[in-house]
# Entry
Amino acid sequence: MEFLNRLREKSAIQKTEKFFPAFAFLGGFSWDSMTIGSKVYGSDLVFLSFYYVVALVAIYFIATRKNVDCCDNANEDESESKVLHRFYHKVLSIEWPQSWIDRLTWLVQFCFGNLCSALVICYFKSSGSIAAFIFVLVLAMLLVGNEFLKKKYENFGVCLAFFCLLGTMFFNFLIPHLVHGMGTFWFFLSTLLSVGICYLLWMKSLRDFARNKFFLIAPITISVVLSVFYLANWIAPVPLVLKQQIVCKNFDRETYSCDADNLDFWQRIGFKGLTIHKDEGDEIYFMSSVYAPAELKAPIEYRWYYKEPSTNKFKLTDKITSSRMVIRGGRDQGYRSYSRKKNIPMGTYRVETAYKDGAVIGSTSFKVLDGQPENGFVRDSLR
# Structure
């Protein structure tokens, strides 16, 4: 112990200790990345719900940690429940010692960290656009910041703001698993549910300062901003996850197989764009598989973009959808679907697989070229 104490006195060690929370975060996040896969199990939802409920209880007691004589002024008539009266006086109106405040703030930090870590992974895997990636990056920054905010969680307003954000994201992920559906209605239900719980927390808190309406500004603002982001398709369409994409020709509907260009080394590692070679009259197919939880149904569409040579910018040319393009969840390798184009001009294209009229699940760019590929074709298929 004496050796450790001397070691901790060194300036280099003291500077390093400031980053210990970040090291702990990276370890926990890496573990979550390995254990939370594209397929979410019922036990995962139970654990996330547990963290949410524990955070709810801890925040409530943080807001009631000081002695308040709110019940002393009440009329103590015989009709009032003695149990409730005793609960208010002996549990909610006690003065929490600093040691218990530290435990409560640690509990909030622990639950927020686990919730945020899982949500970052799940939303990242469903992100198919730059805007959705930026939103996930903001969540990741909050996740790192959570490791340094333990003392800040003594502030009821800070707790309420983080709780509203994580609650909305959590309910938006949880509800599709429960109702087997997703869309605008369910997202706004998630938002209202989260901000409603925050409002009840504020209403039930017994501390005079906690009843300040100022603390409701952050949850309401966060809810409005998230709603705008959702309507702008900047929030990933969880829990949908893209599994595979293929651009090809000579498609076989029975086996979901087709002829694709045989990739060279640079294309395989992503340093060179994909290509598909065709002869006159060939149809070009774009196939994708999207994972969804069991029994969930969600319509999808394919958005074809063509890169205009004059402007060097992608322009939307087609939105392809039909009654068959409805994901039916439960297949581990994902629901398989495809779109096709006839008489397609040579050039560069981008195709997005997206929730119908909603956010992008995934996309890929490729060039359509004439003739035969240098490495020939290979028979590929969606698993």
